């Protein structure tokens, strides 16, 4: 099976957009990811998937923590910045959730401590034990078929 066919099929699954952040030795690092899901209610667990070539892999392995910042519909530029699609330097103001670095304005911030790690294929799955959560009102930033989108209130996905 060709890689492009697989990627196209996976792109048919609409997802939210997150920026994963971590603090390593006083330096905050982040990356855009849509490979995120909840795993368990008791205990409260989530999972993220990080590619083997991503610099974020080493940062999370070293820090043992990560925060999932679920982006609002107004944060597409931040998503592009942390995905490396915007190359020029930008100043990002980070927030703090009881010691965990967060993206200000995200509609949800979920700080975690790494509970388990699994290497599968060319990615590492980090299962995180949820430590703190902060929620804001707002609409989510969505990703479908290789494009950003947003919910139209009371209707369907608008791309």
Helix content: 10-25%
What's the number of structural domains? 1
Tell me the structural class. alpha+beta
Question: Could you report the average pLDDT, rounded to the nearest whole number?
Answer: 92
The strand line-up of the biggest sheet is 3-2-6-9-10-5-4
CATH superfamily: Electron Transport, Fmn-binding Protein, Chain A
According to CATH, what is the topology?
Pnp Oxidase, Chain A
Largest sheet: 7 strands, antiparallel
Using only C-alpha atoms, the radius of gyration works out to 15 Å
| CATH architecture annotation | Roll
User: Alpha-carbon distance between the termini?
Assistant: 28 Å
Strand and helix order: HEEEEEHEHEEEEEEE
CATH top level is Mainly Beta
Description of the structure:
The protein is α+β, with helices and mostly antiparallel strands. The protein has a single domain, classed as Electron Transport, Fmn-binding Protein, Chain A (Pnp Oxidase, Chain A), CATH 2.30.110.10. It has three helices and 13 strands. A seven-stranded antiparallel β-sheet has the order 3-2-6-9-10-5-4. A hairpin with a 5-residue loop joins strand 12 (147-151) and strand 13 (157-158). It is globular. The two termini are 28 Å apart. The model has no long low-confidence stretch (mean pLDDT 92).
């Amino acid at each position: 099976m060709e890689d492009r066919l697989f990627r196209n099929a996976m792109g048919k699954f609409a997802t939210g957009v997150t920026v994963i952040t971590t603090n390593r030795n006083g330096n905050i690092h982040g990356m855009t990811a849509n490979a995120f899901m909840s795993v368990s209610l008791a205990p409260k667990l989530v999972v993220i998937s990080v590619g083997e070539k991503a610099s974020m892999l080493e940062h999370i392995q070293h820090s043992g923590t990560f925060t999932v910042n679920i982006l609002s519909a107004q944060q597409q530029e931040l998503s592009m910045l942390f995905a490396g699609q915007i190359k020029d330097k930008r100043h990002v103001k980070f927030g703090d959730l009881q010691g965990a670095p967060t993206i200000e304005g995200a509609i949800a911030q979920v700080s975690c401590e790494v509970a388990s790690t699994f290497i599968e294929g060319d990615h590492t799955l980090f299962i995180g034990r949820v430590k703190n959560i902060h929620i804001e009102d707002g609409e989510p930033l969505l990703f479908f078929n290789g494009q950003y989108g947003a919910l139209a209130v009371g209707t369907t996905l608008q791309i």
